[in-house]
Amino acid sequence: MSFQPVVLGSGLGAWNFVKRTLAHQKNMHATTPSLTRDIAFFAKSHRDFFTADALTSHPQALRVVLGAYGLSEDTDHQFLIRKIMSDGTGEGALATKLSDRRYRELASDIDYSQDVAWFDRNPQLASRIIDGYRDDSFEAAIGEVDENIRLALNFDRKIGDIGLGASGTATAWFQILGTPPLRLVMEKALGLPKEFANLDIDDQHSRIRDKAKSVLGTDDVAAIASDEVRDKIIDKFILAQQVSNFGHQSSLQTALILLS
């Protein structure tokens, strides 16, 4: 039986409902047969994948790994993923040339350019991958009902990793800018215009930090990852998307009236 997420209403009402029922819905999702099969297979077989070619050639293994890094949409791009994992993160590696930092995380963790296999270098990584895949799969299911709720859940889960793991505030903001789902939530919550993406990356970095200080009272990503500020960002994002959708619908209604 497949998991059917429940999202009642829209906007902040829907977000608050999902937060209240999150533990129950995640527990229900965790029993989904397709999910449990994927996880059981990867837990048992991940040590069999000694090369990037072997891993990318197996749909189940590839689905689990890419889901864990938020790259589930790349399951059909085996050549790209094979190249990223084969190169690692050394000089000239493909992952270091891509703006999306999720590829760099993947290449750093599952680096087939090393002499020692990734699962021997980091024995805990397979468990982390399984946890990430389970979370991403749940969020994807929610996203089929409401993509904004999916983005909010992802932000809620991931921003703390950056706040705690980055070597400093400047680095943390570059990581946010280089992670499309986090970047989108932050841009919308801070009210940044579409033209912001056209700026030089250093200019983006400076402006988004200034905007965070103005709107949130801080540009410290560790502080932003706190429950209070994180909730404030998500609420602002949900409201901004709700207003945007309302404006779009109003424009469509006006156009239909003019055409009638």
TrEMBL record:
Pfam families: DUF1217. InterPro entries: AGR-C-984p-like_sf, DUF1217. This is DUF1217 domain-containing protein.
